[in-house]
Amino acid sequence: MVLSEHKMGVDLENRDPNDLNNHIRVQFEDVLGEPDGVRSMECVWENSYSCFECGKNLCYKILTFLCGLCMALEWGCCFAGITFQNVWFYTPCLRCFSICMGCFQRFFGSCLSCCVVPVCESCGALFSKIRIAKS
Fold first, then answer.
1. pLDDT one digit per residue (tens) for the chain, 135 residues
2. CA angle 17, 22, 27 (to 5 degrees)
3. Is 99 exposed, middle or buried (0-12, 13-18, 19+ CB in 10 A)?
4. DSSP strands (E only) in the chain
5. Contacts of 11 (CB under 8 A, 6+ apart)
6. How far is 71 from 75, CA to CA, in rounded Å?
7. Residue 82 backbone dihedrals phi, psi, to 5 degrees
8. What is the dihedral sign for C-alpha 84, 85, 88, 91?
9. Rounded Cα–Cα distance for residues 11 and 17 (Å)
10. Residue 32: which of 23, 45, 41, 22 has the closest Cα?
11. N or C: which end of the chain has fewer CB within 10 A?
């Protein structure tokens, strides 16, 4: 995949289409709120909003500029490693385990069918004859 082809697939408007981070509320109204009966001066509240938004946006942009590419590379490598482990180790191990346990499953299923099922059927037949009458 060419880098320019990959860029075309990035949605620059909706950057969280799967709502991965909907639990992170970083709007002014979600963080700060004055209850009824207690109010700061309007100029303080308006300037607090401006300072909050400016600080949040500036800090986030600086952090993403300094760390974003490195973090994206790190997470890409991390998920590549997880994918590699699943494809080349975990899935084959689980398949091998499943094949080996299939024999034991049939063996224990046969033992249960021979020993436990007749007892359960007998108990079921015995208890099915009990009738409760209202007086």
1. 555 555 567 888 888 888 888 888 788 888 898 898 899 999 999 999 999 999 999 999 999 999 999 999 999 999 999 999 999 999 999 999 999 999 899 999 999 999 999 999 999 988 888 888 887
2. 115
3. exposed
4. none
5. 17
6. 6
7. -65, -45
8. negative
9. 9
10. 45
11. C
Record the tokens describing residue 94, joined without a space: 């689980």
Tell me the one-letter amino acid at 12: L
Single-letter code of the amino acid located at 109: G
Identity of the amino acid at 106: R
Name the amino acid, one letter, at 14.
Answer: N
* CB burial of residue 48 (10 Å; 0-12, 13-18, 19+): middle
CB-based contact 22:16 (threshold 8 Å): yes
The label of the residue with tokens 């009824």 reads 36
